[in-house]
């Protein structure tokens, strides 16, 4: 089983209800580990103005980016032009979403037209795909009676519990002025917890749990109108997850609108995606458009595994300038690095698929809130996670393809892109550093550069003060963004 598959038994759930327009918090928070705070899984978010720089600089910068036709954040239209309900527009305005991004501007008319058509949508990491599918769902919900409010009309499937919970957070905020909106989270429960019934209008969950809930009649699928697969290439490509998605789809009405979104659609999955979502409208990216300009990609030579660790410790001061995610290959090494760093007096946390759900929830929540600033993890968090303060991503191990459980020395290009995409979100600047400690890793890094036609610069570690200054400058220098965007 790969790291980003479900590892705990299916069955947990929680439903949050948006009852009154002025209630921004869920009324049933029994299973919600923290009140919404910031970023995706959370509340009255600052949208993209929640950057570290002063507000006015950010607003100018974002509007500059949104006015550049070559930028993925560009749009000519406003949210009002897209024909959204006034209550939804009000939700967007509390999130400080001023203009749609390119994918939102293009996808929403296709998604919202009637009769509903399927969509396969691709756009770079951090460009607002979540809002695109959530706005379509909110626009299609009929909340006119109590019964409609309590029967699922839309189902969103995501590969991990963290991403599912994050999407719930986005719907809560975006839909906060829709009276009667109830959102259910269908993620694996802790072993001693009992699942509650999915009496809600939107269900967000992981495929295995949702399938299980339908089978056990905890969730009624007969009223579903929209099915979304977020990180669709990953969902359809993976053994296990793919089968679960197919089975879940077989259990719901054939008439549903099927919506697939991801930043990546490798050719073989793309062909399959078209079968899963027949006759779909398509929004795709050219190969050379995949990388995000605001993410500065670097690498560090390390002569041994031990030197990787020492370099990470050296970087610690920088890791805590903003928040950072360190990606490692296995659960065991995540835990080991965490233990070692903590023993040496550093404050770090780890999150892997190997621990129970509630513990995972507590870790990701403290990372979102900024209580934990350095998170060591596996591919389980490579996709979708949106924490705007992440300014540094470290590939402690280069992501690698597996075949029959064996390493192949072939880079996992998609995962590389998704991992580095945890930073540099919606116009922000970020830095991604890959550690290279042997010939295989060096070769994989070379292939990654070739594949994405990008330059990954070497960091000279002979002078750590200089390393620090250079990285800090990249992260903090507000001019860097404009320069970098222009030079690319
Ligand atoms: N129109 C907008 N204006 C301002 N901020 C926005 C807008 N749309 C989305 N955002 C913000 O941009 C960030 C990234 O959005 P989102 O998580 O949906 O990206 P994504 O395209 O799904 O990325 P990934 O491929 O990594 O999953 C979020 O913090 C979101 O709140």
UniProtKB/TrEMBL annotation:
One of its GO terms (cellular component) is nuclear pore. Gene3D superfamilies: P-loop containing nucleotide triphosphate hydrolases (3.40.50.300). Keywords: ATP-binding, Helicase, Hydrolase, mRNA transport, Nuclear pore complex, Nucleotide-binding, Nucleus, Protein transport, RNA-binding, Translocation, Transport. Residues 77-105 form the DEAD-box RNA helicase Q domain. It is found in: Nucleus membrane; Nucleus, Nuclear pore complex. It catalyses: ATP + H2O = ADP + phosphate + H(+). It holds the Pfam family DEAD. Residues 1-10 have a biased composition (Polar residues). A motif (Q motif) lies at residues 77-105. GO terms for biological process: mRNA transport; protein transport. CDD domains: DEADc_DDX19_DDX25, SF2_C_DEAD. Its main location: nucleus. Its EC number is 3.6.4.13. Associates with the nuclear pore complex. This is RNA helicase.
């Amino acid at each position: 089983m790969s790291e980003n598959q479900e590892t705990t038994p299916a069955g947990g759930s929680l439903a949050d209800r948006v009852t009154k327009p002025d209630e921004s918090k869920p009324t049933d928070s029994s299973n919600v580990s923290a009140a919404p705070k910031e970023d995706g899984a959370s509340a009255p978010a600052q949208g993209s103005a929640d950057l570290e720089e002063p507000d006015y600089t950010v607003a100018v910068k974002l509007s500059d980016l949104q006015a550049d036709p070559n930028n993925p954040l560009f749009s000519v239209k406003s949210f009002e032009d897209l024909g959204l309900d006034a209550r939804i527009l009000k939700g967007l305005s509390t999130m400080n979403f001023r203009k749609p991004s390119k994918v939102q501007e293009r996808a929403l008319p296709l998604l919202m037209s009637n009769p509903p058509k399927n969509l396969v949508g691709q756009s770079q990491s951090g460009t607002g795909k979540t809002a695109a599918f959530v706005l379509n769902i909110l626009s299609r919900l009929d909340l006119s009676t109590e019964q409609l409010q309590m029967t699922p009309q839309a189902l969103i499937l995501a590969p991990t519990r963290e991403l599912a919970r994050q999407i719930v957070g986005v719907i809560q905020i975006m839909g906060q002025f829709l009276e009667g909106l109830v959102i259910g989270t269908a993620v694996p429960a802790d072993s001693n917890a009992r699942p509650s019934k999915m009496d809600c209008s939107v269900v967000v969950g992981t495929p295995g749990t949702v399938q299980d809930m339908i089978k056990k009649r905890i969730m009624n699928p007969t009223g579903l109108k929209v099915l979304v697969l977020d990180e669709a290439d990953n969902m359809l490509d993976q053994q296990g997850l793919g089968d679960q998605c197919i089975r879940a789809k077989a259990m719901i009405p054939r008439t549903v609108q099927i919506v697939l979104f991801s930043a990546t659609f490798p050719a073989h999955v793309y062909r399959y995606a078209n079968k899963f979502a027949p006759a779909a409208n398509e929004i795709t990216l050219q190969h050379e458009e995949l990388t995000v300009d605001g993410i500065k990609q670097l690498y560090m030579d390390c002569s041994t595994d031990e030197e990787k660790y020492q370099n990470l410790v050296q970087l610690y001061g920088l890791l805590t300038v903003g928040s950072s995610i360190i990606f490692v290959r296995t659960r065991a090494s995540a835990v080991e690095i965490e233990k070692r760093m903590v023993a040496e007096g550093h404050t770090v946390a780890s999150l892997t698929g190997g621990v129970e759900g509630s513990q995972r929830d507590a870790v990701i929540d403290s990372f979102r809130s900024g209580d934990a600033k350095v998170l060591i993890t596996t591919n389980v968090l490579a996709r979708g996670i949106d924490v705007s303060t992440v300014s540094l991503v470290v590939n402690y191990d280069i992501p690698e393809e597996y075949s029959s459980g064996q390493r192949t020395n072939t880079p996992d290009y998609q995962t590389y892109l998704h991992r580095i995409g945890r930073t540099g979100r919606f116009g922000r600047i970020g830095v991604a550093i890959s550690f290279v400690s042997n010939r295989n890793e060096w070769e994989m890094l070379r292939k990654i550069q070739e594949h994405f036609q990008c330059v990954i610069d070497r960091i000279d570690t002979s002078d750590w003060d200089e390393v620090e200054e250079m990285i800090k400058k990249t992260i903090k220098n507000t001019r860097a963004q404009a320069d970098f965007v222009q030079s690319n």
